[in-house]
Inverse folding.
């Protein structure tokens, strides 16, 4: 399938284009759901959203960024993923903090995000995150017919439906995008 200037094929046929946890998660999808997950190789130097979209002729609104946050309340610390369209920003200090019941919320450090997800920074995806992490999906992501997301590595991207992302284990759909 062609999207922008990229040709996507079944992710199951190209596990070398996926981080190990992403490949495992796609392979474990029930029934024919894995067939809805497509992958394309990209230049790893163009993995960041703005550069990727410009180079591959894809709108920022047709991409979704996966941001890892660290939540704290008292002595407890936990992590969650937030998924918003590339053209939006997550309301981390408002909607996300309140939904998670955290006293303090911050973006996870690059080292923590990489070590805890076993994915490359700039390629982190909600597909294959640790099973106990909440995945907060903005309602505009869930409603989108086709979105580009990371694959767990910087050298490729996934093409999936918003419905597929909303159906991931521990996914919750809510309004996350910050008002402009």
């Amino acid at each position: 399938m062609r999207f922008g200037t990229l040709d996507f094929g079944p992710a199951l046929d190209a596990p070398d284009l996926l981080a190990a946890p992403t490949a495992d998660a796609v392979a474990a999808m029930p029934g024919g759901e894995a067939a809805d997950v497509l992958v394309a190789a990209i230049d790893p130097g163009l993995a960041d959203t703005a550069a990727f979209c410009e180079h591959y002729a894809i709108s920022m609104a047709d991409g979704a960024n996966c941001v890892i946050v660290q939540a704290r309340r008292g002595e407890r610390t936990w992590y969650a993923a937030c998924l918003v369209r590339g053209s939006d920003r997550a309301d981390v200090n408002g909607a996300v903090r309140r939904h998670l019941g955290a006293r303090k919320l911050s973006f996870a450090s690059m080292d923590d995000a990489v070590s805890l997800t076993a994915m490359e920074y700039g390629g982190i995806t909600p597909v294959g995150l640790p099973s106990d992490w909440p995945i907060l999906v903005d309602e505009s992501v869930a409603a989108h017919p086709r979105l580009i997301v990371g694959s767990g590595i910087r050298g490729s991207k996934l093409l999936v439906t918003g419905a597929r992302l909303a159906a991931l284990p521990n996914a919750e759909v809510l309004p996350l995008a910050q008002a402009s």
Summary: The first helix runs from residue 20 to 27. Residues 64 and 85 are 4 Å apart (CA to CA). The radius of gyration is 15 Å.
